[in-house]
Hints:
Layout: E1 5-10, H1 15-24, E2 29-33, H2 41-45, H3 48-64, H4 77-98, E3 103-106, E4 109-113, E5 116-119, E6 122-131, H5 153-156, E7 165-169, H6 173-184, E8 188-192
Parallel strand pairs: 1-2, 1-6, 2-3, 7-8
Antiparallel strand pairs: 4-5, 5-6
Helix pairs in contact: 3-6
Amino acid sequence: MNYDYDILFLGGGLNYAGAVVASKAGLKCALVEKNPAHLGGTCLHNGCIPSKMYLEAAETIRKAKKDHFSGSIVLEMATLDDEKEALLERATAAITKQCAKVDIVAGEGKLVAPHTVEVAGKKLTARYVILGTGSRPFIPEGIEYDGVGVITSDEVLNMRSLPEKIAVYGDGAIGLEMASFFASAGVETELIWRHDTLLRKAHP
């Protein structure tokens, strides 16, 4: 059977790295991503990278509160957000350049048959299809998410101003990072968790 591609990667998060390596090896590759401006996925745009920028800012605030410093320090969220966006823009441009030999297909892909992915009504075939469709924040049952009063880490990492107070639900790494950031930034912070211990799934 003749295929359109040797490998089709569904999802443009970390999948992009596999597509780059495979294309450099001479394989014909396609990368299906609903938002090509979001190449790099959650880790780059709404996870690891921006959260570490926020935590670095929080650490600066903590250090400035030590006894051998005087005065007050105020976190300018709009400036921090601008710096984050500039970094992500550069990183996305670098990833896009790396994918020069990969066919980037914009749209939501659906695996409709063996070796076959449909995007915007068009069917693409590949000898191998690699799924990397990513993840989304967990919304507990009974909580009505509206993106305004009830938000996820996605919205937190795009804030332009700080709230006076916030309740953070979650005892995993993301919840603790967010709670630590807000508390360090001077926000009245309450952490809510469901389990007996924090970071229950982490190695002891």
